[in-house]
Specification:
By secondary structure, this protein is of the alpha+beta class. It folds into two domains: 75 residues, SH3 type barrels (Roll), CATH 2.30.30.40; 108 residues, Double Stranded RNA Binding Domain, CATH 3.30.160. It contains four helices and twelve strands; from the N terminus they run αββββββββαββαββα. It has a five-stranded antiparallel β-sheet, with helices on one face. A five-stranded mixed β-sheet has the order 9-8-10-11-12, covered by helices on one side. Helix 2 crosses helix 4. It is flat.
């Protein structure tokens, strides 16, 4: 029965937007410079098959809203979070329509036929006794940006919910560059074996509590708590509820 539950969840997550097989994808370095992992199943607590490095190329077998099935170049098949996938190679710029991408050869410089004249060698510059320490450039703050603090994996569902609900905030991975910081807790209470075995019920109870703080002023600009009973998707459902209420509050302003 447990395997049936995992199969149903994986089907729901991947069947939402199937992609054509054999599409190439890459681990998105620009938005997610840290390494991730390839999971054995389409769920956050699944076993890890292999690491997924920044810029790594793979084949997209099936694309979904939250999880996508991929195959690495060495033949490993597993699941990754869909928001980590980029269709463009991170080291190659995207060419604009009609833009010439082939480099234009430059003419070789003309050879001066005049007799060579010896150039005096300049004296070496004196070596300083102590090099000045380099100055650290300040981190630029991105307008309307938010950093989601780690919440035991719930932050991944919250980031995906922001994209699905079109919350007008840019999720960043560097806390110093964010205007706001979201932190909180969540709990997904899975159905017990007796409930599954005797009632055939695989639903769970889930709750979450989050708040968003302005980093500059320290003021709490948004706080919300949600409790969902008898839900099939657990953390996904509570994350989408938080994202929807945050979007509504931002649009009122």
């Amino acid at each position: 029965m447990k395997s049936l539950y995992f199969a149903l969840v994986a089907t729901c997550l991947l069947a939402a937007s199937a992609a054509r097989a054999d599409d190439l994808g890459y681990m998105d370095c620009q938005s997610h410079p840290d390494d991730s992992v390839i999971l054995a199943k389409a769920e956050k607590a699944a076993d890890v098959i292999a690491p997924l490095h920044c810029g790594q190329q793979f084949t997209i077998l099936l694309s979904g809203d939250y999880f996508s099935q991929i195959q690495t170049q060495d033949g490993k098949v597993g699941y990754v979070y869909s928001y980590l996938i980029s269709r463009n190679h991170p080291s190659l710029p995207v060419a604009q329509s009609g833009e010439q991408t082939t480099p234009v050869p430059q003419p070789a410089p003309a050879v001066d036929q005049a007799p060579a004249v010896a150039t005096p060698t300049p004296a070496p510059a004196p070596t300083p006794t102590q090099a000045p320490s380099p100055q650290t450039a300040p981190v630029a703050v991105i307008p309307n940006s938010v950093f989601i603090a780690p919440m035991g994996g719930f932050e991944t569902y919250l980031a995906a919910a922001f994209e699905k609900k079109k919350v007008p905030l840019t999720v960043v991975t560097v806390k110093a560059s964010a205007v706001y910081v979201i932190a909180g807790v969540s709990e997904d209470k899975k159905a017990g074996w007796a409930k599954i075995a005797f009632l055939g019920d695989i639903h769970s109870d889930a709750d979450a509590s989050v708040q968003m703080v302005d980093q500059k002023s320290g003021a709490v600009v948004f706080a919300y708590a949600v409790n969902k009973k008898n839900t099939l998707h657990g953390d996904q459902t509570t994350a989408e509820a938080c994202a929807k209420h945050l979007k509504d509050q931002l649009e009122k302003k």
